[in-house]
Amino acid sequence: MPQTFNQLPEELQLATTAHVKYIQSLDSRKDEYDYWLTEHLRLNGLYWGLTALHLLGHPDALPRSETIDFVLSCQHDSGGFGAAPGHDAHMLSTVSAVQILAMIDAFDELETRGKGKAQVGKYIANLQNRETGTFAGDEWGEEDTRFLYGAFNALSLLGLLDLVDVDKAVNHIAACANFDGGYGVSPGAESHAGQIFTCVAALTIAGRQDLVDKERLGRWLSERQIAGGGLNGRPEKKEDVCYSWWVLSSLEMIGKTHWIDRDQLVAFILRCQDPERGGISDRPGDMVDVWHTVFGIAGLSLLQYPGLQPVDEVYCMPKSATAWVLGR
To answer: Domain Prenyltransferase alpha-alpha toroid, which positions (predicted)?
Structure first.
């Protein structure tokens, strides 16, 4: 059931129509300098926008056939996807491609017009370090728990998780755990909300939440809420709408979302939206962007804000899509 948020002023309402129009307009700004500066995020941006539209209840607001055409135009013979046509293949853009195709039920197009699911799975599997279990982002070898989570996300959606050494990957995540219950980018690194999400979500996909110290982690995550209701990513940092997803999704996975003030967080997210032109920013009064828009809306969905579709806290996709793809 949708939650009621008693402390919200009446003027704080989600500007759904404006947000839909904002997302639809993003690919029409090709005469703007910023459009070309962000080409390296094009496929990720499509995933962010499409996810937001699905959660807003407007899954058909972007043309399906053109979406499929663009995604497949980014694929390499290796099976991996680049951020845009002509860009090198990378784990992050490959994960976004898989998520997009899953959301719009287009895996059959990947088989008939693309390189096929098996080739995508092979590309991802080849990025695993078989000694440590973790994953690189691309052929140049940078390793990060973001890439490990991305691999688990995409491979599980493709039904190909058995292509990689899950146990070694899980052991690597366990080595990234800290005394405060959180996780860092690598063993010994500082706990950070973004890395906590990647590690806890990967462990959830692997069925190994038993390795998570839920009480200690829940305390660390709940302490990320600061005056004004927003969440930060680590101690002594400013609040940011994107952590409405990274922190809250992790709390949802371990069953601790009730440890924060939900009404205050909802109000903070809504104060960051542009109710006239659409979009959500990192903080009230700042410029909006599609990154903060999707994670603000996803956070509101986790908080069961009325009118939004349920989001999957592990995959950051609509639950309707993951339920169908994963056979839940």
So the answer is: 14-317
